[in-house]
Design a protein that fits this description.
This is Peptidylprolyl isomerase. InterPro entries: PPIase_dom_sf, TSP_type-3_rpt. This protein has 321 residues and is mostly beta strands. The protein folds into two domains: 2-232, Chitinase A, domain 3; 243-320, no CATH class. Helix content is 10%, strand content 27%. The chain has a six-stranded antiparallel sheet with strand order 5-6-11-12-7-8. Strand 9 (181-184) and strand 10 (190-193) form a beta hairpin. The chain is globular, with a radius of gyration of 23 Å. The N and C termini lie far apart (46 Å).
Length: 321
């Protein structure tokens, strides 16, 4: 499973020669991303117009051939209306503010929601617990499957150490919610109710692009049937502040907030204002417990004080050193 889902962010590595052209000097040339996407989009739309969704008594998905224009096609049916969202490739080749993969394509990603879910939406940087089945675009071949569920992290750090996911899989999860509740079975296993579930059709630029992995060839669009079961908020740099609070400009992009300008986004930076004192130190305070002992605690995020006379929280203000 990890081999299939782990993000491949360096397009120049693990190339498949059969899927690449060569320059006159013999160097391997990777195909243009926009060109590949245009080709993928055409293939995906043809699939959507000539296939129907089918579920067995256990809810397992399969695809059936259907004539183009038929009202039962994925493209036309209304039980699970076809939706789309425009996404940019958010994979990073390094954990820096300038490390985003060089990909300027805007991808239209088609999906259908089978169940919205009864829990909460997850942010792209939350750890998430999902299960899935992956199909090739023939609608028959299952290239990978996980029926039990697994945790994933983004980005992967020492404190968020689960496997990373491809960009298209990770980003589409924002369209559904987690399960409404988790319960323990008599045999010690766990089950869940009302998890979010969707089927997404991912262009190769948001998947493995030119890298062949398992049954998935280079430049191959893929399908995932995904259930989102749980999420967990993470402190990626262990600085005492949950990463969800380190989107300082509030634009939903956690990578472009770099208070001290050192090239590390705040949610991956131990010293957000570069004053020589770690963020964890700056948000630590002393208090006395019920036994009269002096103990150290971390401020809750909304209780972190501003620098005296300042307008921002002390861990973001170098003047508070």
């Amino acid at each position: 499973m990890n081999r299939i889902l782990k993000t491949f962010v360096l397009a120049g590595f693990a190339l498949v020669a059969a899927n690449c052209k060569k320059n006159d000097d013999g160097a391997i040339q990777v195909r243009d991303r926009q060109e590949v996407y245009d080709d993928d989009k055409s293939k995906i739309e043809t699939f959507l117009k000539t296939k129907a969704l089918s579920f067995d008594e256990n809810g397992n998905l399969s695809f059936e051939d259907i004539s183009e224009g038929n009202s039962g096609s994925i493209w036309n049916q209304q039980e699970y209306p076809l939706q789309s969202v425009e996404l940019k490739n958010d994979a990073y080749t390094s954990q820096t503010v300038t490390g985003r993969i060089k990909d300027d394509v805007t991808y239209k990603v088609y999906y259908v929601i089978i169940n919205e879910g009864g829990g909460e939406h997850a942010k792209t940087i939350d750890d998430v617990y999902t299960k899935y089945t992956g199909f090739l675009l023939d609608g028959v071949t299952k290239f990978d499957q996980n029926d039990y569920g697994f945790w994933s992290s983004y980005p992967q750090t020492r404190y968020a150490s689960n496997v990373e996911l491809i960009s298209g899989y990770r980003q589409i999860l924002q369209q559904i919610k987690t399960a409404s509740d988790i319960y323990e079975n008599p045999d010690g296993t766990y089950g869940f109710n009302n998890a979010g579930r969707l089927i997404v059709f991912i262009p190769s630029g948001l998947g493995y692009f030119n890298t062949a992995t398992g049954a998935v060839g280079g430049y191959t669009p893929i399908i995932f049937d995904i259930s989102l079961i749980m999420k967990k908020e993470v402190d990626h740099d262990n600085d005492g502040i949950l990463s969800k609070y380190e989107d300082i400009n509030g634009n939903g992009n956690f990578w472009d907030d770099d208070t001290d300008g050192d090239g590390k986004p705040d949610f991956l930076d131990l010293d957000d204002d570069a004053d020589g004192k770690t963020t964890r130190e700056e948000i630590t305070y002393e208090t006395v417990d019920e036994s009269g002992n002096v103990i150290k605690k971390l401020y809750e995020f909304d209780q972190i004080p501003n620098c005296p006379g300042g307008t921002v929280k002390k861990h973001l203000d170098k003047a508070c050193y």
